[in-house]
Amino acid sequence: METTLAGIGAICFGLVVGWISYRTLRRKEGVAALSDIAAVISAIGGAAVTALFRSELLFGLYAIGLALGFFAYFLVSISVYGKKETGRWMGE
Predict the structure, then answer these.
(1) At residue 91, does pLDDT exceed 80?
(2) Residue 81 domain boundaries
């Protein structure tokens, strides 16, 4: 169970870091790019802290929580502001 959860967590972590990195490269705006890179560094820093505890379960839970929060924020913004406004601040 612990290994499965760690694997799912690693996939979720990769999804979030990949999404933010892709957006940063695609948008190529000075301040926005810097803040996105800072978000990636923070996420990686959080994962490094969980690695200090040497528990695959903690990393898995952290990464799943990170992905859930990331995508939940995106879905809530679509429902509150609509697709057009969300697309604007997403750089579309």
Answers:
(1) no
(2) 2-89
